[in-house]
Queue: 3 jobs
Job 1
Amino acid sequence: MPIPPGFSLAGRLLRAILVMPVSTNDVACPPKADALAILPGNAVADWPLAAEMILRHRQAHPEIPILIAVDSGLDADRLDERLAIVIPARPDGLIVTGVRNGADLQRMDVMLSVAEAVAGQDPGGTVILAIVGDNPAGLLDAGSLAGRTPRLMAIGRNAAVLAATFGIERHSPAPGASSAVSLSGGLTVLAAAKAGVAALDWLDPALEGEALGEACARARADGFGILATENPEQLAAIDAAYR
């Protein structure tokens, strides 16, 4: 089975991204993670800690790209405040959640360019992975992301978050299922293909065993080139699916 296209960041091909919360402890990088992503909380106090995590990671694992998750729904002042804190630490990219349309992506691009310039960096160096499949609006207008910014490297979904918006506690559909959450996978892959970037799927952290293996194999078969997970125990299944 052909492996769907991923993309290279800092000279490393991304297939598995491990997402982790902010922590004051040293971060150990599992060998099967191609990149790490920090998921700060809503409190602004989390962001200096996230910047410190980036710097500690750079010293311990300079070969592993590191990303920051940012909510597209933040207003301009809060977004500017948070970018001003983390961009000087030079993350390789942003995972932008809650993207509703191309205008959201373009706004993030502009504000990111300002933050880079203020930090004395060349604008454009921080890439974007846009998550549209965690909200209905993003899925219905996902095609509008194409051509908005050269920073865009991937378009993705988070089926567990999307399912929660519909009041579904757990989503693990069988192949061929036709629910709105199941259709989100196809819409995400189509949007990524239109934009000429990789497709990303965010695994339900509760998946394990046979269900996990099936989900990873199905993601590859459906055209997702990158899988993100908040559960480090899922990394082995991702690696097995994308060999």
Note: Residues 54 and 241 are 29 Å apart (CA to CA).
Job 2
Amino acid sequence: MTLHPPGSPGSTGSSGSSGTPWLIAGLGNPGPWFRQTRHNAGFLAVDRLAERHGARFRRRGLATLVAEIAVDGRPVLLAKPLWFINLSGRPVAALLRRYGVPVERLVVVQDDLDFAFGSARLKRGGGPGGHNGVRSVGEVLGTRDFVRLRFGIGRPPKGQSVGDFVLKSFSDDELAAMPGELDRCADALETLVRLGLNRAQDTLNARPAAEAPSVPEAPPVPETGHGTEPGQGAEADRGAR
């Protein structure tokens, strides 16, 4: 399956057999040194979905890697913006325009401090919760009416800043549990495309709490989202948020 921008050679148009595609955009920071950090959970999730379908990411447009898959014949674009995470909005918006994807078919996959590792949630809309990548997408699009898959990364241990925590690699225990957690997210994303948000939420939330991976929870820190202080700009501009 090869998707073409509307109006380009090979495009089926809005009424073509391929249908309107979905865009699933994982958020993260580019570069190998960030690959297994907590802030790159979005990249890891779309990587897993691409692997499941035997798809490869290729450079497309405005500094973005894109892979194309089909879920029961429904076209899906998987994207990894290559700007730093707090600048994710522009490349995501460029892909929506290029492929004629409506915002209601956009899914943003993010890391989330508000959930323990092993927890993930799907929702439509809502505030960014301190996540500057989600904030960037909402600001550039002018709406928050897109779906978010929030992958729990837990909270930093006492004495460690949020910025340092999200840029550290997952622990050995977390990495050992990661394949199963990413598969749960991939299952939910496929269900979303096939059957809609409500059924996908049921899929993601179906596992009893007792089955969650045994990873020690850190003490809570103040509700700061992915920032540390309101004036944290230097760290954020470096891609930390």
Note: The radius of gyration is 17 Å.
Job 3
Amino acid sequence: MTSIYLDSGDSEQIRSAAEDGLIRGFTTNPTLLRQVTDDPLRHCCELLGKYDRLEVFYQPTGAYGDLEAESWAAWRLDPQRMTLKLMSTPSGIALARRLADGGARVALTAAQSPTVMIVAEAIGCEAVIPYVDRAWRDQRTESHLVRSLAQVRHGATRIIAASVKNAGQFVQAYRDGADAVTAPLDVLRAVTADAAAIEAEQAFTAEYADAALPLP
């Protein structure tokens, strides 16, 4: 199933995107959370309470010291809706394996090489999260990173494309095989603001603009 996520920890942005009907959930990272809170776990607990149908992707921040303890604390906030994001580094992969073995849903983020998909499937990850725009700019990374990840996938591990900066990258990620995209609110709004569709809507609206008929 194709999904769209909001890449934000801001409550008002999440509310707005949810009201637009666009998103299945939201993704966070330490940088996004640092912009809105000094207490990431409390903040995410509040967001889970406000938006009771949305999925949450939480990356441990280090704000509480031990990353593994923070990860389990985040998981316990809502095991049905929480996925833990771990870096696709040796230490992050080792932690992801322990969390997955303990029953948590985990994703490897900064998946900037197709080898990450192989590792993710081997340790039982829910998803991998590549950085699309960064891949285009970084000569060490394949430009069509999402496609490379999809080509080595053999199971059900999802590809959630992040670092998506415009509508073109949004569409290209799906063309290359992404199962989901997570993007800032301005990008999601740009995706739905098609000029031709807006012109058609305005024309249809004008047809009965002067009518005030009672409903039957």
Note: The radius of gyration is 19 Å.
